[in-house]
């Protein structure tokens, strides 16, 4: 394709723009560029250079290929680790190729595609190669890696101002995958595909298992930060075959998965005190999974379709580990540290699972569809483990056998026989039963659990029912309503045929064995309205209400309501385009979420209501300044105020934060195939639960240049 303007000037503007900073634009999609009214005559020399480059890229003569260059930076004042976790970017200078796509036909039908990106400092890389011929098959391969950021801070104790910063809180975890895939798709032949994938997680992340710290006259509070070291790999091999026999589609799949982990939990309890120590809890493990599954799909008649599915899975796992206190991380066991831990943990489990699915879809009348389905699952799990307790080096072993059988039915129906109405309903039922046998043994023969001091054999039954009704109404082109209601019941019953622990409250091993019934009831209703009172105005309103109760019965006591959970969600969105070049949108979401238990009334401030109330608001605008330039801006606000200071009784928890976010951007179409965007952002975050230690403000400047070729 011949460009109307000088490509040499376009290249110079491109590289000048890259130097300004980079962030992908948000807001309005860019308008289609108009032809330049004052197009200059092309420079023959520069036209030849562009054609030579285009030929080097594969001879593309359209703009189906592109490359996005981006660069930018962030300036953070305050807690950088908290900024990184909330925004999931590095918080430093960054840039590179944000997006790359190139494609070219090979031969008559085969299409070769290359996609990738590479952003330095964000550790965000990917490369994908795809060669596909629809009449023969495909070969694909690729690699991708992305980084996640975490804040390694601990808790804050308001009564004393207690705040411990023990490590570098800017924690990162890299996730990645390398894969290769190939398949044969010959006409009228079975379709066969194979894929190998290697996945990994490597790095460190925060943990909410906080260590203890002495807080003056208030005693010990769990506020010392901890972190997890992660080193995990997963290798997956899978093969799938599909084919049609007459009117029946059939498929078979095999999957083998090998998972390895070498993780640890790291903590410094009582940091800075005379009895400070370091805790390292090593968590090693191997897991091997094999799965075979098959399915069929058969149209019996024009109005009747039958599908089946079966899956068998085996999962074998081995675990190793230790929990050691010492003078530093990864210390060897020292008996002078009297904390309770364990050594030489080893064990494993074996799981076998069978799943059968049967589905029938019937449309006996044009406006009625009915879908009954059946699912049967059987699962068995055998587990064993043994370890040495510290201090004392006593030996302990445990085993368990778990059996479970679940039968689920579902019936769905949809009716469209009334003009502008859609009615639907669904019923879900589950009947389950199972058994759990547990035994624990101690010295002198714990590895075979012959000398056991604890034994329990429990039978359980489960019954779940869920009924859903819904309707959508379209009374006019610019107005529609939707509503849905469901009622869900779940009942759990437990019978302890053998229990070596007395029901006198003297042994912690009674928990949770004293439960005989655990019942859940949930009602949920939502209403949705979409209304366009004017051609330029759209309003979307939604209300959700959910109420759940939990009833519990224990040995020798009457049934009580152990929890009451209530949630209200209100949301409103308004979009307005007063003129074709201007777009405005505002949204508001308000959530009221509370869980109440009897402990709130009797624990003297130790246990509070669980609240998750918050609201968010945003306002976005976009304006087409002219045929080549678009402007956009957005403001968002978040507020949660669920933090209650009960320092006298416990460690305060709950959310108590406020955040403001403002962004503004410009997109400029320099040429038909050359686009530049610039974005600025400002963030302000205040966190009351951390005593201000996690507060930050940040300024962001980013820019992107896209060239299509």
Compact description:
This protein is 5% helix and 67% strand. The chain has 709 residues and is mostly beta strands.
Verbal overview:
The chain has helices spanning 7-18, 44-56, 80-87, 599-602, and strands at 66-78, 94-106, 110-120, 124-133, 137-151, 156-157, 162-163, 170-184, 191-214, 220-245, 248-267, 278-301, 304-326, 341-365, 368-390, 395-415, 421-442, 452-476, 479-499, 515-534, 537-554, 560-576, 582-596, 610-611, 614-624, 629-641, 656-671, 674-687, 696-708. It is mostly beta strands and 709 residues long. The protein has a domain at 1-32 and 40-121 and 613-619 and 628-709. The strands form two sheets. It has a 26-stranded antiparallel barrel. The chain has a two-stranded antiparallel sheet with strand order 6-7. A hairpin with a 3-residue loop joins strand 3 and strand 4. The N and C termini lie close together (9 Å).
